[in-house]
Known about the structure:
Layout: E1 2-4, E2 15-17, H1 21-29, H2 36-53, H3 57-68, H4 75-88, E3 92-93, E4 96-99, H5 106-125, H6 129-132, E5 134-138, H7 144-154, E6 158-160, E7 175-177, H8 183-191, E8 194-198, E9 217-222, E10 235-239, H9 241-251, H10 259-276, H11 281-293, E11 299-302, H12 306-314, E12 323-324, H13 335-345, E13 351-356, H14 357-360, H15 366-372, E14 378-382, H16 388-398, H17 411-417, E15 422-425, H18 430-439, E16 444-448
Parallel strand pairs: 4-10, 5-6, 5-8, 6-7, 8-9, 9-10, 11-12, 11-13, 13-14, 14-16, 15-16
Antiparallel strand pairs: 1-2, 3-4
Helix pairs in contact: 1-2, 1-3, 2-3, 2-4, 3-4, 5-9, 7-9, 11-12, 11-18
Amino acid sequence: MEIIDQTRLPHARVLISLASGSDAAHAIRVMQVRGAPLIGATAAYGLALALRADPSDASLAAAYALLIATRPTAVNLRWALDRVRAATWLTVYMKHFYVGPHFEFSSIVDRAVRAARRAFEEGWRDTTAQQRGRVLFGVAEAIRARRAELAERIDAPVATTYMGKGAIPEDHPLSVGSAPDDPAFQELLADADIVLCVGTELGAETTAQYALQFRGRLVQIDADAPRIGATYPALGLVGDAAATLRALLERVPARKGENGARRAREVRERIDRGLEAQPRDLERGLLSTIRSVLPRDAVHAWDMTILGYWAAAHFAALAPRRFLYPLGSGTLGYAWPAALGAKAALPHTPTLAVVGDGGFMYGAVEMLTARQHRLDAKLLVIDDGGYGILREYQRDAYQGTHAVDLLQPDFLALCTACGIPNRLTSPDRLAADLAWALETPGPAAIVLRETLAAAAPTP
């Protein structure tokens, strides 16, 4: 690797050859390399050079420590070193196994995967395996095909988190969906002999505020080692999810049958029966209408609003990276700007934002952004006159409400003032009006004036 010695600029252009991790560390330390991006790139190449000379764990640890010490506060340097380390850490380290995307050292990778494979095989030998079985759980769209292939190979139902919706199409026979507050969903995970978790930290929303208790063995795949075992004890496989699943796929024996599809179907049907028993025809009807009109690969961004909470658990996501939802931050006003960003990235993909009236006011001005940049995103505003979910929380807790009813503008007039074609819709006209919006060139808006109720967990 060659760099320009920046201590000699601008008077001379001198190239320096770096042949080792130590050379790279020296160049960073004495400021022959400057600028955050270049420091990160040099450190990454330095770590690669060290591993080329000695691919052992000890060499990796020593080179990482040497390079990180050159500029301890440099964010780009640490980020680059962590990316290289995550991609190349192949051997047992601490309490987890590290698996990278490069499999030249197949004997080392065998060590890293053997424990997970043994866990699967021990589960299959259990006398209750046909009843309890295995479950794949988590997110990681990048490994969608691998996960579906592995699920089919081991005949395992696939449950997803909210942020993982669409990683496997929710009309796949092995898909359970993403309803973590429903007992049918929880029992499937709790009773399984083995749960393979891919890219999920098993956080509060995913585990019914940590009420979920696993009776079987957890095998957890994540690129970030501290996330493994942070909430539940697990056998950890640290590394690229696609690479790790590929290693498992090559080594785990196939289990043929229809038990997994039957178990997934039973969970879905039990949840459906529970929802049918609730007086929630309006909310379920809206979700059904939106799903029937949106193309399979459409982007749908959901705000922190009652219909968004319904969608997280019960809207069928049929393609990866198409269900957008602000789970981590819980941000009001997220959906409309997110839909615009998605439309800018995928200009030929239909895009819909579903927002409440309170949340929409955080980003209403972005209607002008949509017009100015010709972003052909569509908007559905659910107008119930305020913060609907907070009304429910306050009534349940205090038998009254305070500061949740909002003085709002006329949303139709506001859209018109911004040059956005708009319609007032109703539940029975929503399908036609949503189809109109999707066919209208440029941004378009639909306003639905309804008061919705949150879903209750099914029995």
